Amino acid sequence: MRPTSLIPAFVDAVARLQERVPYASAFARSNAGTSARVSALSTVCQPISPQAGFTLSAWTGERFLEISSDRLDPAAVAQAAIRLLERLRALPRPIDPITIDPGPQLDRRFSQDMQHDSRLIPAAEKVAFASALRKRLMDASPRMIEATGIIADVHAEIYFVNPSCQLAQELHRIREMALGTFSDGAHQAELHGGFERIGGWEHRTLEHRFIEDLRHDGPRLLGAGRLPDPGEHDCIFSGDFSGMFAHEAFGHGTEQDMFLKDRAKGAEFLGKPVASPLVEMIDDPANGWAASYFFDDEGVLATPTRIISQGVLVNGINDRYSAAVLNRRGLTVAKTANGRREAYDHKPYTRMTNTYFGRGIATFAEMLRTISHGYYLTHPSNGMEDPKGWGIQLEGAMAEEIEDGRLTGRVFSPVVVTGSVPKLLQSVSQVGDEVVEASLGMCGKGYKEWVKVTDGGPVMRLRAVLA
Amino acid sequence: MSAAAPATAGLDLGSIAAGLRQQPWIAQWQITQRDSVRHERYLTFLAVESERESAATIWTVWTATAADNGKQGEASFTIQAGESLAALQESLERAHAAALAAGNPAFELPADGEDGVAQASARDADALADPLISADAPGAVDTLAQEFSTAVAACPWVRPSTLEIFLTTHDRVLLNHRGLHLRERRTHAFAEFVLLHRAAGRDEVEFYHQTEAASLQALALGARVARAARCVRDGAQAGATVPGVQPVVISDEYLAKLLDSFRAHADAGRHASRTNVFTLGDPLLQRRSGPVLTVVSDPSVISLAAYQFDEQGYAPSRTTLIDADRLVGVVGSARWMRLLGRQPRGMAGTLVVPAGDSAAADLLCGALEVVAFSDLAARSDTGAFSGEIRLAYRHHADGRVEAVTGGSVSGVLTQALADCRFSREMTTCAGYHGPRAVRFAALTVAC
Asked: ipTM value of the model?
């Protein structure tokens, strides 16, 4: 059963709950799609897990009560509403309830475009493409001892109902990835790459830049040691490394559910400079990158949020609960479309979407020219935020040495960046003129609650502590 | 809230099995039914922000065509509670097309009574479950929330920013075409909390901790809160980390994560596809000092990696992976073990490392003891690891202890283990059971 059939039941359940609580809503999601994966000894072509189900939410004025079920049928919705009402009856009514704004009246249906519907592509064609991707990689480098080619199409149907709105959206994207294992007999190295795009089968390609990057950089990692001179250095971050920096630095740091818990130092710095005036930073769920949507999981229509403007922290991002509580506390915050759930049966938190640094005017060559000794950081792998202490950890697979304004060809692996977020951001001295999207990302809240995100940015020159 | 029983209005295990038996193209099949019931509570400064409950039933179906020239077509799919027989039929049609496109080396699923296969009658199916969670999860949530409040109250210098509690009961049933029919219940307790503290004249700091275990007792939430409270108080007055190559002590979940990279080295799939970094019999390291390394996979040792039967129905089996610093064993699914010409003995379970010969306290002298990293894991291809230091203690030779923060610890695991000492004291965390702490003689600290 598709979740669309539940809308009348959701409307009814929300109306019944609204008789008892100041705010109620319903959310349903169902996933579809296929993942084809080919390696030397294994070929897999399987549907992605549907993770289909719904959640009914009731806001008492002080707390949320939620019930989730994987049964997409109206009787299950009615049963969940009854159970919520039973539970609500056992709770005292709040003396001073906080109001949650349900937003404007809306009844909208949205769908992302697919020129070529990937759901209609036969399994054999998907396997053939993943196999061709693998072969393209294996043929490209004699040092590659194994490669895995992956092509996946991911589709989501999402429905949201509250007293003001009934919203539906269909999201479609393609994921193309490859993992290469390289060896020179004495050393081994692994490197992966790929991309995701909104849309359908039309986006598959055997000519993407990531394939050349894997072919070129994988063998260079063989036997690469750790940095010989750990400490503070002049650096250039590649565009995708800048993206990870944006995400970890002031992406998590401006999630306003962290403000409620006194876990974000950024709360004290709204309206104040936190970065070099060259730094612009945006979170935009509507820019067409791979984490885009039309409305968030709380029914708020997607719009961009400028987080840092000319080095000044100007806005945070939020979910309905954090916006309501912060406004009650007298901190006027603009509602943003960042309430997201990992799945239908997870709690919504404030989450990023497509988060990136804006472009500047410098070129990579101009940055390189003025560095006497430093490193060019590429192939970001993972990062970790610290919004309270403003520490940061960014890890990448490769740091290439810069000497006297030139790349020397010596590489070190892996490389980790640590330090103080504002110190790093204030050290940004040049910003590149082209923004790169790093589209494969997933983001955890702390160490769980994984949602699809992208990040990006231009190449940036800054000073950072490397090891 | 009371837990909703998973409902299976449309399909059940029997009707799915019947549907599979009717497909002439299916030579082998396996169904795994997973029922889960989860209760969650979220507190902010001890006030309840949200309470949730969820229930779900899914069936993961694996199918294979008859073997032909050593190859078989394979396909799998997931179907949910509430789906109809028509939906199953549609999934099977797609699976047939996928199986025709996905030829893999042939192997056979195990049969009931076969060597190494779990036997339903020989086991207590609830052995991995904490009855406090499975019988009364809402009551268990209350117990944990109270334990947290009591522990926080005993440490008046902290502010309890957040607590998240998730308690889940998982039931797993495995059924295959050769008569294997197994059932297992397990429980999972998860807690994440943040404590805040401000020292006079300094910025407020936080201490974040996440923990998970199979039972409330193993979660030991109160003890963890007490330790975190001490850490946040020390962290609020921490100085800067001193850079240089120095002895570093790493313990508990971080040590578990580092050693977890040995799973990849002993993974049968990597050996079958010849992407293994080390060959069987190879030394992993050139030992300089300290006792030799032994690592065993034992799924019968209780941890989050323990199981009663693996994904294909094999019983837990103890396998030595590393002996005297050499890789000596591989583990993995029947598919990969058969390809290597080995008898399947179950997938990897709890990683067990024997106790060391040093008291944990003796490891600390002159070392940097890191108690909180932002993140720490070793790469499986090179063994390289790095982690930002959230909180550490410098243990001076004269007995002084100083809290520090910032900077990073880096190394290469196989080099670091060549010169290390393990503690006598043991711990169990995540999928690890072994020494609570390790002292590496020389790691790079940068800041």
From this structure: 0.94
